[in-house]
Amino acid sequence: MLINELQVKKEIIDGLESMGFTELTPIQEQVIMPIIDGKDVIGQAQTGTGKTAAFAIPVLNNLDLEINKPQCLILCPTRELAVQVKKEIKNISAFMDVRSTAVYGGAPIIEQIRKIKKGSHIIVGTPGRTIDLINRNVIKFDAIKTIILDEADEMLKMGFREDIEIILENKQNDVQTLLFSATIPTNVISLKNKYQKDPVFLKTNTKDITSDNVDQSYYVVKHSNKIEALARIIDIYSPKLALVFCNTKKKVDEVADQMIEKGYNCDKIHGDIKQSSRMDVLNRFNNGLINVLVATDVAARGLDIKHVEAVINYDVPEKEDYYVHRIGRTGRAGEQGYSFTLTSSRELDRIQSIERYTKKMIDMKKIPSAEKVLEVKKEKIAKDIYNTIRNEDLSDMLSLSEMLYESDTDPKEIIAALLKMNYSLKMEGETADLNEKIVKKREKYSEKSFDKGHRTHDRGAKGNERNLPFDKDAATTDRYYIAVGKKDKVKPRDILGAVTGECGVSGEDIAKIDIYETFSFFNASVALRKTILSKMKNVKIKDRIVSAEITRKRK
Ligand code: CDP
Ligand code: MG
Q1: CA distances (Å), 292 to each of 81, 156, 181, 245, 312, in order?
Q2: How far is Cα 159 from Cα 196, in angstroms, rounded to an integer?
Q3: 205: left (phi > 0), else alpha (psi -120 to 50), else beta?
Q4: Is 513 helix (H, G, I), strand (E, B) or coil?
Q5: How would you classify residue 42: left for phi > 0, otherwise alpha for psi between -120 and 50, otherwise beta?
Q6: Pick the CATH number of 457-550 from 2.50.20.10, 3.40.50.2300, 3.40.630.190, 3.30.70.330
Q7: What is the pLDDT of residues 218-264, one digit of tens each?
Q8: Which residues lie closer than 8 Å to 18 by C-beta, 6 or more apart?
């Protein structure tokens, strides 16, 4: 739906258009009207799908600007998010006389009190500071019509349940309550049951939970080599902005320190960093002054950072949905994004459960060799030098340059010395091969299914390792092997097409198509075994005549 078709105050349309919005996102399309009509709503959509405007637009539309009292209270998990939500509201209401205040700990409360008392219509706050202001009788509920829990799942995960309940206990009975969340775990459901009246549950299709614009890959690397691997990936891809995720604050500190030591433009955000400096870091990242930002999931949650070219999972995320949130930070608005996950061979089953969760393949890549990285670095240095010659005024250096040139020293040596003085840090680095060897654990299984010629080290091992999580389905599912792979340019849809076409089964019957260099796998229900084994015989896929074989006997 187009923005100008929206049935809201004209000033809001103007505000949205001045922000460059032309169309509503799917979640916005679903929730705006029910919220305007006063319904309680649960809105579920993944990160970056415009949930902020989804509630901000109807709330702004419903404000009574004659009443200079808080009419809407929005609770957010972090201070940065509160500031960001306030900013988004400010932008949308650029042509309205609306006052909103963000309140959060770690900043002087007096200033916040002053702003609210001036007559704020909307308050955006973190739970702790909001309670504080309620207790001081600064935030009063007499005019509050709407309470919103933004990123509700995250707030509960962060232990704000009690605070949220204290706040919600203050509300009048007829207050509209809205829950926005990327996921709806049971603790969110229980909040809903306790505090919402006949809520409408609106969610956007989660089928395609990761964007097609993100090129996803992973690297198998030992823990001790991860920093060097991270450095090489950044060197090779040289993303303008890379967001690096770690599972703990401690790890964020370690990684950021080591990357800075290696000479990268790197900084970090996590919960223990002072709020003022967190905002500063974010601004610098958004302005391109930092290329590499290391963060925890919580600190980065909900933050809207544009043009992130690469998301790097320094640690494999603990939960599948974290992976989705993390990589959702790149490949937005039609841009191409990249995600790289560093995993040890022991964590490979985690990669597979992520693949199952997102229903997308993550490609295994090799960490680039030190020689390759060095080559790329040299090219970049040469490019920098030529750019400097082209774009900078060098006159103040020329006399010294002439003096050096006229001396007896070979100019090549002079240049080499200058390079050494300026770039030696950049040129250093581990030279070892960082790829971790994948140990073969279940030799027996693959023995029959791979013909000898196909068995190279990592492929066989990959087949073994990556099948582990399927064991629990083994009673109902067969895993098939088929001798066409990447080298034949085969795509999942080719295999899907062949199986559905030849066997007359539906696409939903085929799962987990994994394509390797010279062969591929897919899963299908045991009930289809007879059909598949008989029909998938000498079938042509990408100019190769192949047959499907079961890789593993049912237990
Ligand atoms: O809260 P959620 O993670 O769903 O996303 P957000 O923080 O609201 O970010 C959505 C981004 O898309 C913001 O940069 C918005 O300005 C932009 N956007 C939008 O929200 N709605 C549109 N119709 C178009 C763009
Ligand atoms: Mg949000």
Answers
A1: 20, 29, 27, 11, 10
A2: 20
A3: beta
A4: strand
A5: beta
A6: 3.30.70.330
A7: 999 988 899 999 999 998 888 889 999 999 999 999 999 999 988 88
A8: 91, 94, 95
CATH, domain range 214-368: 3.40.50.300
What's the N-to-C CA distance of the chain in angstroms?
A: 52
Helix (H) or strand (E) holding 477: strand 477-482
Q: Which of 25, 28, 124, 150 to mutate to test the pocket of ligand 1 (most atoms within 8 A of CB)?
A: 25
Ligand closest in space to the Cα of 22: 1
- Quick one: tokens of 382? 């040469």
Confirm if 64 and 50 have CB atoms less than 8 A apart.
no
pTM of the model: 0.53
Interval 274-285 mean pLDDT: 82
Where are the domain boundaries for CATH 3.30.70.330 in the chain? 457-550
Mutate to test the pocket of ligand 1, among 28, 47, 51, 52 (most ligand atoms within 8 A of CB): 52
* Helix or strand holding residue 436 (H, E): none
**Distance in Å, CA 291 to ligand 1 centroid:** 23
pLDDT, tens digit, 9 for 90 and up, residues 428-484: 666 778 888 776 443 333 333 333 333 333 333 333 333 322 334 556 788 888 989
The per-residue pLDDT for range 165-207, each reduced to its tens digit, is 999 998 888 999 999 998 888 899 999 999 999 999 998 865 4
Q: Is the shortest distance between the CB of 170 and ligand 1 below 6 Å?
A: no
Contact 342, 204 (CB under 8 A): no
CA atoms within 13 A on the CB side of 521: 22
Q: Sign of the C-alpha dihedral, residues 377, 378, 383, 388? A: positive
What separation in Å is there between the alpha carbon of 50 and the centre of ligand 1? 3
- Give the span between the Cα atoms of 180 and 350, in whole angstroms: 28
DSSP states along 141-198:
STT--EEEETTHHHHHHTT-HHHHHHHHHTS-TT-EEEEEES---HHHHHHHHHH-SS
Q: What DSSP string describes 187-245? A: HHHHHHHHH-SS-EEEE---TT-S-TTEEEEEEEB-GGGHHHHHHHHHHHH--SSEEEE
What 8-state DSSP symbol labels residue 40? -
Place of tokens 């963060």: 295
Mean pLDDT across the chain: 85
Q: What sign has the CA pseudo-torsion 426, 432, 433, 439?
A: negative
**Identity of the residue numbered 224:** S
C-beta of residue 99 within 8 angstroms of C-beta of residue 60: no
Q: Is 77 in the pocket of ligand 1 (CB under 6 A)?
A: no
d(CA 246, ligand 1 centre) in Å: 24
Q: Where in the chain is the domain with CATH 3.40.50.300?
A: 3-208, 214-368
CATH code of the domain made up of 3-208: 3.40.50.300
Q: Specify the DSSP class assigned to residue 552.
A: S
